[in-house]
Write a structure and sequence with these properties.
10 strands; about 10% strand
Length: about 525
């Protein structure tokens, strides 16, 4: 554990003695800063961050020691302070106690006594920092664990019963809770994202998620925001939240829509399930909300489950899942069965509403294009071709033909790929959806049902780099965009891309980019300012 100390004294010979005589490195202090007055010391703390231990004189020019300590406590409430002074007035000692100074040592300095004092305080400092780091790590793990649990359950990767959290609450307590589920979608996301690069897509999706997070804290104590797909997010709210009530949902969704529109210029559609649900119903409810947000013109509340139309819509959604699963598995029989099922369902919907049948098919084509693009099955040129085809398909028969052509085109492309390529496409898709998590080879190989060694071999052959190199590159590409285009702190950006500790994020970033994150941001800021001044 690397500690930092600061010596503040205008008597240069005392400063040099303190630097030379005390065994700083042996005690764990890798950095020993010095200042000749309180103002200089305050500047050092402001510019270079937290200091663990301060040795400070009282009487100094410009700013005395007690004034410095008083101002310091406004921005650093944890560092330990030892006063070194030749003044013995009781009033100084009283002030020192008021500013939470731990020791008061008189000059001339007894260096053996001072060393013993520093050793004792350092032991306490290390214990406090370790406790803080442990708590911070546990909080981070808890947040990531919650997100992973909810994401896996909503996307139906795992059932709610499979999870046991070794956190503050056990599995039964988590499963017994009730949640409100909100689905959010960027209106006309497909059209907007057509011109974006992959990095731009990542940036905008992260930006929306952050805006949602920051706005939700005004309404609820705790919320979970999951990006379920490009341009789509699920918000999960615990029913027993102290400040949250069901009646707040409409107001909250209006504020979310207004905030995203104001800051990001995106119009979002929101829909929520009107009843609280248990964890086991999250996946099913999420799929129903997806159908509702497309087919029900952005209703604030989900229709009753007994509704005949909604039942038909949800049955239609199962056809969508059936076809996509068949494509991902390269199972021609399953795909053909899905298309047959699709025709039957469309005929049933057409009997009630021709317009609804058009809506369903239009959305299904968009949905397939997005799924196949995310998996790397169709490229940008092919995506554009299908998009143009969709614009010229208006009747139900035209749309059925379009979706038939799209499905078989994708099936042929997937079938032509080696099984190893399909596995790695799935691996790349998983990484993109879990980039802020603590990804590992064991996790990916378990997800793909292959051995870790075989996964590593296939990954290197397919991506031409190791798993760690690939994940690092994806994270740093996103970090660079966030540094240039947002004002988020370095710590926050690090957490957003999967690095819980700022120091480690900075180390990795500097290793690959040759600049620290702050220097990288400053470099582009100067370029932008230069362009703006022309």
């Amino acid at each position: 554990m690397n500690l930092k100390s600061l010596i503040v004294d205008d008597e240069i010979h005392i400063v040099k003695n303190l630097q030379a005589v005390l065994p700083w490195k042996e005690m764990g202090y890798m950095t020993v800063e010095t200042a000749v007055n309180g103002q200089e010391a305050l500047d050092i703390v402001t510019q270079h961050g937290e200091v663990d231990l301060i040795l400070c004189d009282i009487k100094m020019p410009v700013m005395d020691g007690l004034t410095f300590i008083n101002q310091l406590r406004g921005q650093n409430d944890t560092c330990e302070i030892i006063l070194l002074t030749g003044f013995q007035e009781f009033s100084y000692a009283q002030k020192a106690i008021e500013y939470r100074v731990r020791e008061y040592i008189l000059k001339p300095i007894d260096y053996l006594k001072l060393e013993d004092t520093i050793y004792r305080l350092t032991k306490q400092i290390k214990h406090q920092k370790q406790s803080k780091m442990t708590q911070k790590k546990m909080d981070s793990i808890a947040d990531l664990a919650y997100e992973k649990v909810f994401y896996d359950v909503i996307m139906n990767y795992s059932s709610a019963q499979t999870y046991t959290l070794n956190l503050n609450e056990d599995k039964n307590e988590l499963q017994s809770k009730q949640f409100y589920l909100i689905l959010i979608h960027i209106e006309e996301y497909f059209k907007k994202s057509m011109e974006w690069s992959q990095n731009e897509k990542k940036l905008w999706n992260f930006a929306v998620k952050n805006v949602l997070h920051e706005k939700l804290v005004y309404f609820v104590d705790r919320s979970t925001v999951l990006q379920t797909r490009d341009g789509e997010w699920c918000v999960i709210l615990e029913r027993d939240s102290n400040t949250f009530h069901k009646n707040n949902i409409n107001e909250m969704m209006e504020h979310l829509e207004e905030t995203v529109l104001k800051y990001l210029k995106f119009k979002i559609n929101t829909v929520h399930w009107e009843k609280p649900i248990t964890m086991t119903l999250l996946s099913d409810t999420y799929q129903k909300l997806q159908a509702i947000i497309v087919l029900s013109s952005n209703k604030a509340y989900a229709p009753k489950e007994a509704s005949a139309n909604s039942t038909s819509h949800f049955s239609m959604w199962n056809v969508v899942k059936e076809l996509i699963t068949g494509l991902k598995q390269s199972d021609r029989n399953k795909v053909e069965a899905g298309l047959d099922h699709l025709i039957k369902e469309i005929n049933r919907i057409t009997e009630h509403s021709y317009q609804t049948a058009q809506q369903v098919l239009h959305f299904m084509i968009l949905h397939f294009i997005r799924e196949m693009n995310e998996l790397g099955i169709i490229d940008a040129e092919e995506e554009q071709r299908f998009w143009n085809m969709l614009k010229h398909s208006s009747s139900v028969n035209d749309l059925l033909q379009a979706i038939n052509d799209l499905v078989y085109f994708c099936l042929d492309k997937i079938s032509s790929k080696k099984s190893s390529d399909v596995l790695m496409i799935s691996a790349g898709d998983y990484i993109q959806h879990h980039i802020s998590s603590d990804l590992s080879i064991d996790e990916l190989s378990d997800y793909l049902k292959i051995s870790p060694s075989y996964f590593s071999l296939l990954f290197k052959q397919h991506f031409h780099m190791t798993f760690v190199e690939y994940v690092t590159k994806q994270r740093l590409d996103l970090a660079k965009s966030l540094l240039i285009m947002t004002e988020n702190s370095i710590t926050k950006i690090g957490k957003m891309i999967g690095y819980a500790e700022r120091r480690y994020f900075t180390k990795v970033f500097q290793k690959y980019e040759g600049l620290s994150p702050s220097e990288y941001r400053l470099k582009f800021s100067e370029v932008k300012d230069g362009l703006n001044s022309r």
